Amino acid sequence: MYLVILAGFRVFRRDAGSLSVSDLLVVVLIADAAQNGMSAEYRSLTEGVVVVGTIFAWNYALDWLAYHSRLVYWLLHPPSLLLVKDGRIQARNLRAQLLTKDDLLEQLREQGVADVHTVKECYLESDGRISVIRQEDSGHESQRGRDPARPA
Fold first, then answer.
1. Are 13 and 61 within 8 A, CB to CB?
2. Which residues of 1-25 are buried (b: 16+ CB within 10 A; e: fewer)?
3. pLDDT digits over 87-142, tens only?
4. pLDDT: is 57 or 49 the higher one?
5. Could you tell me which CATH class the domain 81-136 is placed in?
């Protein structure tokens, strides 16, 4: 059973760190099916292999459909959700995801952002990660047309 699961993950592998909700669900389902196959819940090991193989096949089929169909992709991968716009926290979107302001600020600190006002946009991505676009340094923008030899 171990070799079948290992082969399945090798064949249907993902990029490191890109475990989505559907991938996590597949892992849980495979763990349950494999446990049943190894604990004699099935009459033979072959039954467990068939169940695990079926789960891998459905996962691959859904990924293939999502790649080829915008509708299926949209159903399986929700759009990114704006959490911060021009330094302002979007409280309605935080509430919709049951995130607190402290949760957001913690995630921003992990991204190296000390002050929310320095964030141009911050999104909650479909895989649960937070992506941050910082505002341009306003000091550099104001010095563009200025002669560096002349004092300000």
1. no
2. eeebbeebeeeeeeeeeeebeeeee
3. 999 999 999 999 999 999 999 999 899 999 999 999 998 878 899 999 875 444 33
4. 57
5. alpha beta
Query: Among the listed ranges 51-55, 81-85, 116-120, which one has the minimum average pLDDT value?
Result: 51-55
Query: Is 90 exceeded by the pLDDT of residue 72?
Result: no
- Domains of the chain by residue range: 2-76, 81-136
**Could you give phi then psi for residue 129, rounded to 5 degrees?**
-80, 160
Q: How much is the pLDDT for 68?
A: 95
DSSP string, 75-136: HHSPPPEEEEETTEE-HHHHHHTT--HHHHHHHHHHTT-S-GGGEEEEEE-TTS-EEEEEPP
Six-digit token string for 102 = 């402290």
Tell if the pTM clears 0.85, that is, is over it: no
Q: How many alpha carbons fall within 13 Å on the CB side of residue 4?
A: 21
Query: Reduced to 3 states, what is the DSSP secondary structure of residue 18?
Result: coil
Are 37 and 48 contacting, i.e. CB atoms less than 8 angstroms apart?
A: yes
